[in-house]
Write a sequence for this structure.
């Protein structure tokens, strides 16, 4: 069943666990994630970046793909179909019109006042369609879709100002995590994370989940993180398995065998993630 993120994240905040946000790239990614999360009986947020959407054909194609898989595979868990880092009102509107149940509007590259203006426009439209909205304060850097950006940490004051002026459903404050692999140990500002969580009634989101040591994930959840985004880690385990398969089976040309040789690696990693996040239905 497709749901928005509201209840999933509020329950996670209350129960001190995290819902996994796993980025999808194609049919196989969506299928493996749905099958594994359904087997483990946990809810999941499928994240779709703008470039992943373009790659797969567009938001309508993805909506039909995901709802088709839910039906054909008898998926019974709650599934949230979410735009990851939507950069404009128009992108979010297009996804909502296609049937997405949740969007992230990332206007964090703008000044706070402009971030608020764009975010509010998205919230007003999204809430009229029962769609939830995540926003970003500060700026989460690192490498995503082959683009590298620097980070700026969020402050409590900016988080409160954005929340009070927009009525967003969840917030991703930049507090030291980055997209892609870390150079050295991630340096997360847990103190500010805890303070923001205590002062905001909405759940917090941690981007850049790949490469954060397990104890820091546990600490982030105890500081109020209710949704953790993972992308690079699934790409890495899939690519490693496929490269090994191709080295050992150089004559195979069936794309289903080649792409599918990463299935077990993705599913095993999802099982680890769910156990670490202590995700519940
Ligand atoms: P990673 O690629 O570092 O796991 O981050 C994913 C993410 O935050 C997507 O929004």
């Amino acid at each position: 069943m497709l749901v928005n993120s509201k209840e999933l994240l509020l329950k996670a905040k209350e129960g001190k666990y995290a819902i996994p946000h796993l980025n999808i790239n194609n049919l196989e990614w969506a299928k493996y994630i749905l099958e594994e999360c359904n087997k483990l009986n946990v809810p999941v947020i499928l994240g779709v970046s703008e470039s992943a959407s373009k790659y797969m054909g567009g938001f309508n194609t993805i909506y039909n793909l995901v709802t088709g898989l839910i039906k054909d595979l008898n998926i019974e868990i709650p599934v949230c179909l979410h735009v990851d880092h939507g950069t404009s009102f128009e992108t979010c509107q297009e996804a909502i019109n296609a049937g997405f149940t949740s969007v992230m509007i990332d206007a964090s590259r703008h000044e706070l006042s402009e971030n608020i203006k764009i975010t509010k426009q998205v919230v007003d439209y999204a809430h009229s369609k029962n769609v939830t909205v995540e926003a970003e304060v500060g700026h989460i850097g690192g490498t995503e879709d082959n683009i590298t950006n620097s980070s700026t940490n969020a402050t409590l004051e900016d988080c409160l100002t954005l929340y009070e002026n927009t009525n967003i459903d969840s917030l991703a404050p930049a507090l030291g995590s980055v997209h892609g692999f870390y150079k050295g140990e991630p340096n997360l500002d847990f103190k500010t994370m805890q303070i923001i969580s205590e002062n905001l009634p909405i759940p917090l989101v941690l981007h850049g989940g790949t490469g954060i040591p397990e104890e820091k994930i546990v600490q982030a959840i105890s500081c109020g993180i209710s949704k953790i985004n993972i992308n690079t880690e699934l790409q890495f385990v899939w690519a490693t398995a496929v490269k090994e398969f191709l080295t050992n089976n150089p004559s195979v040309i069936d794309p289903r065998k080649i792409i599918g040789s990463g299935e077990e690696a993705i599913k095993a990693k999802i099982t680890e993630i769910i156990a670490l996040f202590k995700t519940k239905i």
About this structure: The beta strands are 19-23, 44-49, 79-86, 102-105, 132-137, 142-144, 147-149, 170-173, 204-206, 225-230. Residues 23, 47, 84-85, 179-180, 207-210, 229-233 surround 1,3-dihydroxyacetonephosphate (CB under 6 Å). The chain has a mean pLDDT of 96. The first helix runs from residue 6 to 15.
